[in-house]
Amino acid sequence: MTDQERLEAIQAVVDRVTSWQDGATEGTVAEELRNGAREVGVEMSDEEIRRLADVIEDRHAAVDAAEVLSES
To answer: Please, which domain of life does this record's source organism belong to (predicted)?
Structure first.
């Protein structure tokens, strides 16, 4: 899987989780990100999961996975 394919798969998971997780706890969002990543066959580190979950909870709107994961 190329880096671009990986990011596209992660973005699909983020979009799905964001669309129905408004108001969910961080633990729920993180778990759904992990489940989605497993379903699409993408490995994500705990740090990547945490960063994405934090942004999903903070923004309550569309999240650009590539942007979040490229931030230091």
So the answer is: Bacteria
